[in-house]
Design goal:
Pyrimidine Nucleoside Phosphorylase, Chain A, domain 2; Aldehyde Oxidoreductase, domain 3; 13 strands; binds uracil
Amino acid sequence: MTDTAATPEPFDAVEVITAKRDGHRLADEQIDWVVDAFTRGVVAPEQMSALAMAILLNGMERPEIARWTNAMIASGERLDFSSLSRPTADKHSTGGVGDKITLPLAPLVAACGVAVPQLSGRGLGHTGGTLDKLESIPGWRAELSNERMLAQLEEVGAVICAAGAGLAPADKKLYALRDVTGTVEAIPLIASSIMSKKIAEGTGALVLDVKVGTGAFMKSHDDALELARTMVDLGRDAGVTTTALLTDMSTPLGLTAGNAVEVAESVEVLAGGGPADVVELTVTLAREMLAAAGRTDVDPADALADGRAMDVWRRMIAAQGGDPDAPLPTPKETHMITAPSDGFLTRLDALAVGVAAWRLGAGRSRPGERVQAVAGVVLHAKPGDRVRAGQPLIELHTDTPERFARAEEALAGAFEIAAEEPATTNSLIARVG
Ligand code: URA
């Protein structure tokens, strides 16, 4: 047998790792090669993990991040929505607790004449996943072919579905490694991960909701601002109209964190009710998306109030096999944590509530694990509310009551009650773009 000599690789992974380890800027060709070779399986996972750690520790310059993002886009397919009869706009949140905004937002923006191709993910750690939440609706399916997605965007105006395997496969592989190597929180890696998927998805406009606070990946205002600026620049360089809002994630959004409970709260918002913070952020983001898509002539608050957004929601759920009228699943067991004293609730920590929901079964502890549709947390008070000793404060939902103890542990020290009414805070911290 003759040996078919493989084409020699132009670089060596160790060379690229040591260059970044020693604080050097990577050459364009090194970046193109390392991302491509990792996708092909030539750069080993342990080598890519070492490079990710070097990037986390030493950072990347803007041109390096742009090149890395483009290399991740080039690893897969690009969708094309240019055949649609209306403009497209998408929103991406960097992840939070109780962040169900995508659910009312996508149909609301579609009801105002802009199509929303929302490729979403599953839960990651303590942060909930949009697809996991929607799967609590009987019959609803997350997987759609590209053709079906395009048809639904034209007919209904909004799609929330799983990103296909062909979109930025380099990111899928790298994300799985970062999740288990302590390298999630690197700004260049987060920015390129999010923006490679959004640019490859082909949206015309993009609004980023960058979360800041205990329940977010970015704990500090400065880091969140840097992440927002980096992503806005990447989007604009790729021809996508991009803006970012920095919003508070020190306390959960709304009164629910989990799966079915968040769907129920979203439906309340679409029906004209729901918690004020969820309604406010939904309408603010809708205005940003519509403006980015060139529609400043419509007010999303009207489409929420007159039921047009609810109509699109019902059609969007039905188009993906879901029954919008079916009752949502309810938990076999609930457990109530009550207020220990009279006063004002001054703090309710987002991370603790997220971890509690996760431990109740709303999230995964191993890749591919099934989540419980019923699992989650319902809040009976929010910071600023007056509470009385013994009144319900935090309600835990699960089908497996042995999970209550670990969820309660997560909530120990998560809230404070004081005599003084706390100052009101604004959840919108800054706008970039
Ligand atoms: N979401 C992503 O898609 N990627 C990250 O790196 C972090 C949040």
